[in-house]
Amino acid sequence: MGLELDFSVVLERWRALLDGAALTLQLAFIAVICGAAIGVFGAIGRRGGNALVERLCGAYVEAIRNTPLLVQIFLVYFGLSSLGLKFSAFTVAAVALTINVGAYTTEIMRAGFDSIHKGQIEAAEGLGLSRAQIYWHVIIWPGIERVYPALTSQFVLLMLASSVTSQISAEELTAVANYIQSETYRSFETYIVVAFIYIALSFVMRFGFWLLGLALFPRRRRLGTPL
Amino acid sequence: MNAHSAPPAAAAPVVALRNVHKSFGPLKVLDGVSFTVPRGEVMVLIGRSGSGKSTALRCIDRFETIDNGEIEVCGRRVDDARLDVRALRQDVGIVFQSYNLFPHLTIEENITLAPHSVKKVPKAEARALAAKVLAQVGLEEKLHAYPEQLSGGQQQRAAIARSLAMQPKVMLFDEVTSALDPELTGEVLKVIEALATEGMTMVLVTHEMSFARGIADQVVFMHKGKVHEAGSADILSSPSTPELAQFVGTGL
Q: Where does the ABC transmembrane type-1 domain start and stop, copy by copy (chain A) (predicted)?
């Protein structure tokens, strides 16, 4: 018996697939921007001074790292609705993904910030820089440069993991695929096409982060050496 | 005397330690240390590793807090818990053994960072300042290089330039040539010598005895957390305590 593949019925729904891919990228974009901001503050919180803040940031990271993403999504989804708050599936998905990636980003950024040598901070203190200025100029940027490859991987992973939000009917790529395959009965073909679209999205993201890295880290652009 | 608000008299020393005590846990590192550095003078701190000389230097810039005694720097009481540490550090330049240039910034950015962000010097003015201090240390052509592209001696000179750009009233040097080979050491010491000639007040911790002899207005030999012997550079040639005699004997 032969394997008969018919992609035509899938491909003729390219419009829906494209919309789904766009929504996936939008979700990833929002979660990466907000997650990176959470990561910077979370990492500072976990490192610096205040025991209560350190514990809170630590608890956040551990809670997220030790529960499945799908459960986190359901918690946000049902949590908000039990508070009587009505949000679109997209909003819920974006919030849940942000909370998730924020925790992982906190840990990665903390590793980057911790890698900054004490002598660097002393030199900055000796020049009279304030704590905030030291963080900004001497810890955050070189720290992020060091862990930039790990951050890129985490953010691409997040984009792929956003497929889970199809469970709460966010109309992203996987949700679109589920719909197409139920309509066409061409399940295998549908998910082959969708897998290729995800690969393409991953490449797009990696390329974007590579470009962003060139803009953010001029030393690396000029010398090509790791910090 | 009202040390918190009184402006320094013209003759007041730039740096004064009075009976300073400091322990790290059970270990007494400074045991009643006193010395003064008048304006325009160069003081060299020598002593064995662990004698407390680096700690004494770091106390001047409040990188260490003391248990007892008084430290006065540029009219500020450094031992006062209410000290404005950032204001102190604008008056005091410090250079470390390990250079500590910021690796992700060009030499120019390393130098303009503090004047621009701390003293709010406009960018263009800060860049002019960077060119000036780099010329002072003989590195004008390295303005746009990154630290890793420089030799150790060049990095240390750039670090000195970075401190000078804040126009400090006193410079502290903490074993700044200990990581360098003799040739690179020479180029760094020349820069320090030139600063001395220009009248910069300086405190140096160093193991370079012949350099100390040439540059020091005052030499303080520390031993077991105390000032064991102090005087002009002559004490290096004719020490009066056996400990210093032994130290310079092995140090040469």
A: 21-209
What does the block give as tokens for A22? 């766009």
Residue B251 predicted with pLDDT over 50:
no
Phi-psi label, residue B195: left if phi above 0, alpha if psi -120 to 50, beta otherwise:
alpha
Reported residue count of chain A is 227
Q: How far apart are CA A105 and CA A157, in angstroms?
A: 12
Grouping H, G, I as helix, E, B as strand and the rest as coil, residue B180 is: coil
A95 found inside a domain:
yes
Name the CA radius of gyration of chain A, rounded: 21
Interval B55-66: pLDDT, tens? 999 999 999 999
Is there a contact between B102 and A122 if contact means CB atoms under 8 Å apart? Answer: no
Q: What are phi and psi of A85, to 5 degrees?
A: -95, 125
Distance (Å, whole) CA B180 – CA B186? 9
**Averaged confidence pLDDT in chain A:** 95
Asked if residue A226 belongs to a domain, the reply is no
pLDDT of B153-163, one tens digit each?
999 999 999 99
State the CATH number of the domain containing residue A136: 1.10.3720.10
Nearest CA in chain A to B107: A219
A7 is a domain residue: no
- What residues of chain B, 61 to 120, have a C-beta less than 8 Å from chain A? 61, 63, 86-87, 89-90, 92-94, 96, 98, 100-106, 113-114, 117-118
Q: How many CB pairs under 8 A join A and B?
A: 71
Q: How many domains does chain A have?
A: 1
Helix, coil or strand: residue A139: helix
Q: Which of B63, B118, B149 sits opposite A128 (nearest CB)?
A: B118
Instruction: Tell me the C-alpha distance between B97 and B205, whole Å.
Output: 10
Any chain A CB within 8 A of the CB of B200? no
Any B CB within 8 A of A145 CB: yes
- Using CB atoms, pick whichever of B98, B162, B166 lies closest to residue A119: B98
- Candidates A119, A145, A222; nearest CB to B100: A119
Domains assigned to chain B: 15-251 (3.40.50.300)
Residues A101-126: tens digit of each pLDDT: 999 999 999 999 999 999 999 999 99
Instruction: Tell me if A227 is assigned to some domain.
Output: no
Q: What is the extent of the structural domain holding A108?
A: 18-221
Q: Which residues of chain A are under the pLDDT cut of 50?
A: none
Q: For B61, name the nearest residue in chain A, comparing CA atoms only.
A: A126
